[in-house]
Design brief:
Helix content is 95%, strand content 0%. Helix 1 runs antiparallel to helix 2. It has one domain. The two termini are 19 Å apart. It is built from two helices and no strands. By secondary structure, the chain is mostly helical.
Length: 145
């Protein structure tokens, strides 16, 4: 009877180790999906900010043109060029920041998936160790006289 309890105990330890690794892998995959969604959201937010920056720049340029019509002068072209340059910078900066954040989240997603795979591999090793340990215990107690 005791040997049946040892076999059952070893079996449960092996199954538990495998389940633990599978659960860790599933959790990591879920986390990776969440991070990828966040990365896509960051890109979308950045695009909206870039569009807003472009509109703000166009509004400034429009106002400058209106003021130039009321008070023509040589400085208008320089001012308009500065406005357009600032607008281009703001648009590019918004896109860069969003893409940088998205890449960071994507990297975290890849790391989460890797960690899940590693946990699953480690659980297999743990399960094998439990199986060998239980087998050795049975052998030394009942078969290794």
């Amino acid at each position: 009877m005791a040997h049946l309890m040892m076999v059952a105990s070893t079996g449960l330890k092996v199954m538990s180790a495998l389940q633990e690794g599978g659960d860790a892998d599933d959790a990591a995959k879920y986390r990776a999906k969440q991070l990828k969604r966040q990365a896509n959201s960051e890109r979308a937010v950045a695009q909206r900010k870039a569009i807003e920056a472009r509109r703000a720049g166009q509004l400034k340029a429009s106002r400058a043109r209106a003021l130039a019509g009321a008070r023509p002068g040589a400085g208008f072209i320089d001012t308009l060029g500065e406005i357009e340059g600032d607008t281009d910078y703001d648009v590019a900066n918004a896109l860069f920041i969003g893409e940088d954040r998205a890449r960071g989240l994507t990297d975290q997603a890849e790391l989460a998936k890797f960690q899940g795979r590693q946990a699953k591999k480690a659980s297999r090793t743990k399960a094998a160790s439990e199986l060998l340990g239980g087998s050795y215990s049975l052998y030394t107690k009942y078969g290794g006289k």
